[in-house]
Design goal:
The complex is a heterodimer of chains A (255) and B (313). Chain A has 255 residues and is an all-alpha fold. Chain A has eleven helices and two strands, in the order αααββαααααααα. The model of chain A has no long low-confidence stretch (mean pLDDT 92). Chain B has ten helices and 14 strands. In chain B, a hairpin with a 2-residue loop joins β9 and β10. The chains are: A mainly alpha (255), B alpha/beta (313).
């Protein structure tokens, strides 16, 4: 009987060592970027904006910036790691071994989640230099962070499977993730948008995640929290099924 | 017990290229088996399917009685693969490459560490265990791949051109290692372009060409089928004219050497006697080509693209 938990642990530990070994590329940049966000948007511009939904601007943007880092880093970890594994052909080590597809998927996704959450903690620590952080709903805050990291780690995995070049792994982060994150209410409330843009914004899933996360911190939200859990859960199930289908068919990884 | 059984295995790639046209092949447990064929014949595709790197179009693969589709876990556990090209993470250390592979096979940490040390020592790589793999020489990288393939003690080891591009000293040490692994009970399937390697190591052989098995027999009886052997003779004195010997075809290479095609029934004693009678003294002789190479070329040439070989499997 093969012990799959050992295979799972091996993949996860390998992934953690990978991003820790290259910490100047994986953990340092978000700390610097976040400090700049807080300095420019929070201190210099934020002081002129005043309050949004009763919260001062700095406190308002902190959750969004933390979650934006979680999103981009959980995605980036899996997409770059799994694509490199494919590119260097060391994916063959996994394909030859008696590892079921769900173990490969959960191993890589766990690596992405761990990096996403670790970066989230780093960003939260940096933000404490600029704002006083209080968490009103710990359960909602932690579960939204975990579920969001899972969604984007899964999305990164699918991107890596389908990518045929290094260009393909930067298209989604640059042209989809970053715009959706910025338009997901990190720096503003949807109430500030004109009517039609408020409706269009509701089609952006990241808006729900950021608002639910913000609700966990300061108790302010533009969306229904229950709906956020349903949307996020729906994304996770859909992405898991699609990832396993791709692995089962060997699309992008087998001839 | 069959270590490997392929039944009507076919592979058609998405671009329409038919790599395997339905091959049947059995390899007995404990065998040292050569799978030979020219480039593009279908060897790597067959090995890719056996090791789950390539999806088959149809047919079945059974490894030590476990069907590769229905009992994937058990079937895969029996296999160790040494691929043609380096495919480990070049930024990992030698030890972590082998140790991780043990983990993928579900080996507990303590046992994995023991097996890693054993395999690295066997490959003479223990001193290099903490070296980042991209700093290793080509021969060392190949040995890392062999150590990695052996770490879970597979019953079937597949070596896909393991000695390609390595110098003769390393090649010979790898031959010795392969023989030792086989003597310990591991079935080995070897693909190689060095036919003397296959001839000296393997007991049974299959030749694949244009997606079909064109020959499948034991090495001894295959070599016995060689009707004419080609030799190069080094002479003691220069010759003015090429000697004529009935039944043998002789060509001059230089004034001091000849090539001779000798039919099996003619024999070398008779040849030497006839040469002596013509006052030609032979200092030494060697095979012009490896015997298996000669047969291989005959079989491949006899089965050009599109033809169905006699007795094809």
């Amino acid at each position: 009987m093969i012990n799959y938990s050992i295979a799972f642990k091996t993949i996860v530990i390998k992934e953690i060592f990978r991003f820790i070994r290259i910490w100047p590329q994986t953990l340092l940049p978000p700390a610097i970027t976040t400090a700049l966000y807080f300095l420019i948007f929070g201190k210099l511009i934020g002081d002129r904006i005043g309050t949004i939904s009763g919260a001062n601007y700095m406190d308002y943007i902190v959750p969004g910036i933390i979650l934006m880092s979680v999103i981009s880093h959980s995605y980036a970890n899996v997409v770059s790691s799994f694509y490199s594994t494919k590119f260097q052909r060391n994916i063959e080590e996994l394909l030859v071994a008696p590892i079921p597809n769900w173990v490969i998927l959960s191993g890589y996704v766990s690596g992405g989640i761990i990096r996403g959450l670790l970066v989230g903690i780093v960003v939260a620590l940096i933000s404490m230099l600029f704002a006083e952080i209080k968490i009103n709903h710990v359960g909602i805050t932690l579960s939204i962070a975990l579920l969001t990291a899972t969604v984007f780690a899964l999305a990164g995995f699918i991107n890596a499977i389908l990518a045929e070049s290094f260009d393909d792994i930067s298209i989604i982060p640059n042209f989809v993730l970053t715009p959706l994150s910025y338009l997901g209410g990190v720096f503003y409330s949807t109430d500030m948008l004109p009517g039609i843009w408020q409706i269009i914004s509701k089609g952006n899933p990241i808006l729900y995640m950021i608002n639910a996360f913000r609700y966990g911190f300061i108790g302010v939200t533009d969306v229904d929290i229950q709906l956020t859990f349903i949307i996020t859960g729906g994304f996770i199930i859909t992405l898991i099924v699609f990832s396993l289908y791709l692995l089962h068919k060997g699309i992008g990884i087998k001839s | 017990m069959k270590a490997l059984s392929l039944c009507n295995l076919k592979k058609i790639y998405n671009n329409g290229f038919v790599a395997l046209k339905g091959i049947d092949l059995d390899v007995e447990a404990g065998d040292f088996f050569a799978l030979l064929g020219p480039n593009g014949a279908g060897k790597s595709t067959a090995i890719g399917i056996i090791s789950s790197l390539v999806n088959s179009t149809s047919g079945s693969v059974s490894i030590f009685g476990h069907d590769l589709k229905r009992e994937q876990g058990q079937a895969k556990s029996c296999i160790g693969l040494v691929p043609q090209e380096v495919n480990f993470n070049q930024f990992d250390t030698v030890k972590s490459i082998v140790l991780n592979q043990a983990g993928y096979y579900g080996m507990p940490r303590k046992l994995a560490l023991q097996r890693t040390e054993y395999c690295l020592r066997q490959m003479d790589l223990w001193d290099k265990r903490d070296t980042v793999s991209r700093r290793l020489s080509g021969g060392m990288k190949r040995r890392v791949m062999i150590a990695r393939a052996l770490v879970h003690a597979p019953k079937l080891l597949i070596l896909d051109e393991p000695t390609a591009g390595v110098d003769i000293e390393i090649r010979r040490s790898m031959w010795k290692m392969m023989q030792e692994v086989n003597q310990q009970g591991t079935t080995i399937i070897l693909t190689t372009h060095y036919l003397e390697e296959a001839e000296s190591l393997c007991r049974n052989i299959a030749i694949i060409n244009h997606g079909l098995i064109v020959e499948n027999s034991d090495m001894k009886s295959l070599l016995a089928r060689l009707h004419v052997e080609h030799f190069v003779l080094d002479l003691a004195r220069p010759i003015a004219t090429v000697p004529v010997i009935e039944g043998c075809q002789i060509e001059r290479v230089t004034d001091l050497s000849l090539t001779v095609a000798v039919p099996k029934e003619h024999g070398l004693n008779k040849l030497f006697a006839q040469l002596s009678a013509q006052n030609i003294e032979v200092l030494s002789l060697k095979n012009k080509t490896n015997r298996l190479e000669q047969l291989f070329m005959d079989l491949v040439d006899a089965n050009p693209v599109g033809s169905k070989p006699a007795g094809a499997k």
